[in-house]
Design goal:
The protein has about 110 residues and is mainly alpha-helical. Helices cover about 75% and strands about 0% of the residues. The chain has one domain.
């Protein structure tokens, strides 16, 4: 699978949540920004099933864990159709961030979260 449709769906989910406020909107926003920043490793992860490696020596903190939990819940809400692009996009995002949670936390630290 190409990574572009996955990114497009993640961006659509981010835009749909704009203006809602709360943790879901923040989780989707930061997920999309982080994955966009890490687009090379994310593309390899989606297209070649290459496991990403963490680049920064940061431990995942409560905010990264909270946002990952929210994204996991969103994915689980649509897991009845594993062929649906919303499920695929959220599943790939959750799996990628789970494997790079320290880097996600470093990004959140830089973003002031």
């Amino acid at each position: 699978m190409k990574h572009e449709p996955v990114l497009a769906k993640l961006n659509e989910l981010r835009k749909d949540a704009q203006g809602e406020g709360g943790v879901e909107e923040k989780a989707l926003y930061h997920m999309f920004c982080f994955i966009s920043y890490e687009v090379g490793p994310f593309a390899d992860f989606v297209e070649k099933e290459m496991a990403p490696s963490e680049k920064k020596d940061t431990s995942p903190g409560p905010k990264a864990e909270e946002y990952l939990g929210v994204l996991t819940e969103l994915r689980d809400e649509v897991d009845d159709d594993p062929g649906d692009m919303e499920f695929i996009a959220l599943d790939r995002a959750v799996a990628f961030i789970s494997q790079t949670s320290g880097d996600f936390q470093a990004y959140l630290n830089e973003a002031g979260e």
